[in-house]
Amino acid sequence: MFNNPDLERQYLRLTNLIRNTRDSFEPDDELQSHLAKYLCILCSGFLENALKITLSDFAEQRTGDEMILSYLKSQLQRINNPNSGKIRDTTKIFSPILEERLNTFMQVNDKSSAINYIIKDRHKIAHGKDSDITIRKIEEYFTKVVKVFVFIEQDLLTNARA
Hints:
By secondary structure, the protein is mostly helical. 81% of the residues lie in helices and 0% in strands. The chain has seven helices and no strands.
């Protein structure tokens, strides 16, 4: 699914964890509820990593200048809790045209909202607040997140060749 092997491994690991958690417990099981919170945090980490890795890989393909590449990677490492707005803003730095296409793509089937819910719930969980996140919601949100980053990766690859 992803061109970067590290991102692909993280994707497969999360997909398997979500499926195993969903299939191993009853929906009202308290342990499943706790695992859903854990998976929400992992999905949030995937969001951060996917943004950094995808754009870093693109920058590596496009520039041979180590100083510029080093600067771009250091700026990408500073991004935390990338909600849909941060993702759009960051892609806009690389390509305003990509940001426009991404914005349109993210509005279809509430992909933008799925990203924001993961970040919002991660924040609640990390600060000890109640969260109503479930395995089903995580699975739905994660599927949408993956679609967004596949879109970004494919768009950057397509335009990099142009």
